[in-house]
Amino acid sequence: MFSLPLRAGARLAPLEVWHAEEFAAHLDRAREHIRPWVGPAFISPDTAATLRRYADRQAADGVRLYGIWQDGQLRGGVMFTSFDTAFGGCEIGCWLEPAAEGHGWITEACGLLLDWAFSVRGLHRAEWHCRADNKRSAAVAERLGMTLEGVRREAWPFQGVRYDKQVWAILAPEWR
Ligand SMILES: CC(C)(COP(=O)(O)OP(=O)(O)OC[C@H]1O[C@@H](n2cnc3c(N)ncnc32)[C@H](O)[C@@H]1OP(=O)(O)O)[C@@H](O)C(=O)NCCC(=O)NCCS
């Protein structure tokens, strides 16, 4: 199993089907914190099904899921929520349990995903979608050098309210 170092002793590694139990314990710590901001399927208690869905689509060179561990505990992660070599584009997403915020892990991990997508896989465009009132998520996109390209109005339904959704993106030549 490979893993890449992140600052402050954290590590980034593939989050796979065999982590289902650990992912379930982590989601019990993270679920209410991330519920308003992520797709409902991601916080399902059936973590084995979630991880299998990612694995199946990764097998077709599609989406990918990576966890962030610190002190042997899963703290959150980053993912390609879409990955399309035919169109040369991908979308990146992320989450953390509350105690793991504020270390810069997500910005650093997303930088590694962008490096790989642009430099190794030759993609041209990476997107970031977030609820327009998700300030911490938009701050990550901004730190990564993404441009806010637009707002999809009332595109994010949550608990009976429809929220605006921001679309951020960065192009390969804009990436460091
Ligand atoms: C979105 C989310 C993952 C962002 O987490 P985060 O901790 O703010 O992001 P990072 O890990 O990149 O850390 C940045 C923070 O660490 C701080 N930091 C410390 N050292 C840093 C470093 N070397 N580099 C960058 N930031 C650093 C930054 O100042 C920033 O903290 P601040 O906002 O209080 O100033 C998190 O808020 C979350 O899980 N939210 C709920 C789920 C969610 O919204 N997911 C995204 C859906 S679109």
UniProtKB/TrEMBL annotation:
It holds the Pfam family Acetyltransf_3. PANTHER family: ACETYLTRANSFERASE, RIBOSOMAL-PROTEIN-SERINE ACETYLTRANSFERASE. This is RimJ/RimL family protein N-acetyltransferase. InterPro entries: Acyl_CoA_acyltransferase (IPR016181), GNAT_dom (IPR000182), Ribosomal_N-acetyltransferase (IPR051908). GO terms for molecular function: protein N-terminal-serine acetyltransferase activity; protein-N-terminal-alanine acetyltransferase activity. One of its GO terms (cellular component) is cytoplasm. Keywords: Transferase. Residues 15-168 form the N-acetyltransferase domain.
